[in-house]
Specification:
The protein is mainly alpha-helical and 370 residues long. It folds into two domains: 2-43 and 170-369, no CATH class; 50-154, abc type-2 transporter like fold (3-Layer(aba) Sandwich), CATH 3.40.1710.10. The protein has helices at residues 2-20, 22-32, 34-42, 61-72, 85-93, 107-113, 128-154, 174-205, 207-212, 218-235, 237-246, 255-279, 283-299, 312-318, 322-336, 340-369; strands spanning 50-56, 76-81, 99-103, 120-123.
Length: 370
Amino acid sequence: MMAGTRLAALLRKELTQFLRDRTMLLLVLYLHTVEVVMCTVALSFDVSNLPTVLADFDRSAESRLLTERFRSSGYFNIEHATVRDGEVARLLDGGEALAAIVIPPEFSRRLATGAPVAVQLLLDGANANTASVAQGYARRIVQNYAMERSQVLTAAPPPIDYRPRVWYNSELRYSYFMVLSMIALAGMLVGVIVSAASIVREKESGTIEQMMVTPIRPAEMIAAKMLPTLLVGLVALLPSLLIAAWFGVPMRGSLILFFLFSAVFLLSSMGIGILIATFTETLQQALLTSFFALFPVLFLSGTLVPVESMPLGVQYLAQLSPLTHYMDALLGIFLKGVGLEVLWPQAAALAGIGAVLLGGSIVRFRKHMA
């Protein structure tokens, strides 16, 4: 009974203190709203309206038709037109154009006779990702054009009926993935930074020494520190869900399962924050150490690039991050509509990682209070 009374008193004290901290509440709300919107709008690996220069040395109806295919695709924005090689090089060197389409002379005549003809695409490879994506777009545009012209000349159907079908995200909107990534990152930041700051502030104010002489146990104190962050973190997911709906992200799975996964993920993140707090003495140290720990976790968890594209050793390292498994769960719940019968490995991994982190933080905290 005494243990329950102590814990209830601690919970009331921590919850009241947390709700009075308007700066922390605004930070949590900012991470789950403004940052989610800002990063989703600004960060995208899609390529659109790429500044392009056109060098059409043929100037025929066929070359104009191909040019129109590039222009209407939305991927290439033809801002310059020239018939001088030196001008193409100048625009690419100066960064005024990131791509150049060069249509050779006798383009239309060779098409009419069925002879092969090459169309040159020059790309600024300073940003390798942009150049690679633009190369894929251009290849598809030219292939579709060539297939259509072949049918016109031979009046025969294409030899292969190519019908791609994309599951889960049929419109291939990168914003779907980005919104879910930012929601996951916001939860990670809230769990780590807020929990670390709440304990370190007790150290700086000297109240933690007063608690050492009370019957409060380390596990009780940690539980009291975690509950306000957990509650506020789960409530902050509500505006994030509204933002996801605003971006058109489908919610095909269970909303309850989403909150359950989020709760376990927040507990794992708070385990990291509490562990950091046991190694630091000031708020500045805690924040710097939090970011030192967060950046590798964020970049190696599949939120920006697929884990499968990383080196094998890094892939194994990424499996130790709760963010990796939470991100898989979000994609499964929102886009695929799968349930726990499919996502149980992610649930088990999150629970196991959380248990290890919280257990380690309690052991460290007990030694600190001893």
